[in-house]
């Protein structure tokens, strides 16, 4: 009975907290850089010594910069925020034309190009996401999770996260960071994702082992089992496509505002 009361109380507090927050109406951009073999350190050095300062100069808000724990693809994953799409386009145009950027790029590539290819996606915060901001979470690892839904079922997935999942994550030792859907306008994006059926979010954990233990407990929680069953019954089936849940563990770079 005490655990049930605690759960109900936690749920009420969490819903109140979410409802009290103002919607985050900014446009976000997730960018993934695939460095050429042996060039990731040089790419990180360019970001550390030049790029972040130039981003700030041109009105871009840097959030988190991460590399995968198992970085077999030489990836750098990062998130930026802009007031809106027009500001995004103007900032990137000014950045690309900046003589300081051109000089830094040229100097860093004296021994060859650093980047093989780039992916990016434009994101909007969900109604239940906390305000994305640069802060120190003081944890071991971040987890980037991407869900692809069946057609028309993204609203059902968002409702389940809003009403149940976020609270249960916290109960089982996971920290919610930010939650996004793809923006409707993906013009100029080079992304494997499709607007209207994608949820992308970040969690933090003390370690990878702690993350696995938390998810094991979460999946066995009768409240989760019941909420999943109810949401799938309402939607007429699974909310996500087969193999539609992807997870990647990340660690922040030394220059990342989010740590």
Can you give keywords for this protein?
Alpha-Beta Plaits; globular; alpha+beta; single chain; 259 residues; eight-stranded antiparallel beta barrel; disordered N terminus
Estimate the mean pLDDT confidence. 91
The coarse overall form would be globular
Proportion of helical residues: 40-55%
Strand fraction equals 25-35%
Major sheet: order of its strands? 1-3-2-8-5-7-6-4
* The number of domains: 1
Radius of gyration: 19 Å
Task: Report how far apart the termini are.
Answer: 38 Å
* Low-pLDDT sequence parts: 1-20
Order of secondary-structure elements: HEHEEHHEEHEEHHE
**CATH topology-level fold name:** Alpha-Beta Plaits
- Provide the structure class: alpha+beta
Q: Main beta sheet, described?
A: 8 strands, antiparallel, barrel
The count of β-strands is 8
Alpha plus pi helix count: 7
The CATH architecture: 2-Layer Sandwich
The top level CATH class name: Alpha Beta
């Amino acid at each position: 009975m005490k655990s049930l009361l605690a759960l109900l109380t936690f749920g009420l507090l969490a819903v109140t907290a979410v409802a009290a927050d103002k919607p985050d109406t900014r446009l976000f951009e997730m960018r993934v850089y695939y460095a050429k073999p042996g060039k990731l350190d040089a790419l990180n050095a360019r970001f550390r010594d030049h790029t972040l300062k130039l981003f700030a100069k041109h009105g871009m808000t840097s959030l988190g910069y991460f590399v995968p724990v198992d970085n077999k693809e030489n990836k750098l994953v990062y998130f930026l925020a802009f007031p809106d799409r027009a500001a995004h386009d103007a900032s990137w145009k000014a950045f690309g034309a900046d003589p300081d950027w051109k000089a830094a790029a040229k100097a860093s590539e004296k021994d060859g190009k650093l980047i093989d290819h780039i992916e990016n996606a434009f994101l909007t915060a969900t109604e239940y996401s906390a305000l994305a901001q640069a802060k120190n979470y003081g944890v071991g690892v971040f987890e980037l999770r991407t869900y692809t839904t069946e057609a028309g079922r993204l609203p059902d997935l968002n409702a389940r996260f809003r009403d149940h999942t976020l609270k249960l994550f916290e109960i089982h030792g996971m920290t919610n960071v930010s939650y996004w859907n793809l923006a409707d306008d993906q013009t100029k994006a080079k992304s494997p994702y499709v607007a209207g059926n994608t949820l992308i979010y970040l969690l933090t954990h003390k370690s990878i082992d702690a993350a696995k233990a938390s998810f094991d407990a979460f999946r066995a929680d009768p409240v989760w089992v019941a909420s999943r069953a109810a949401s799938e019954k309402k939607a007429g089936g699974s909310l996500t496509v087969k193999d539609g849940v992807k997870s990647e563990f990340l660690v922040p770079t030394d220059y990342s505002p989010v740590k």
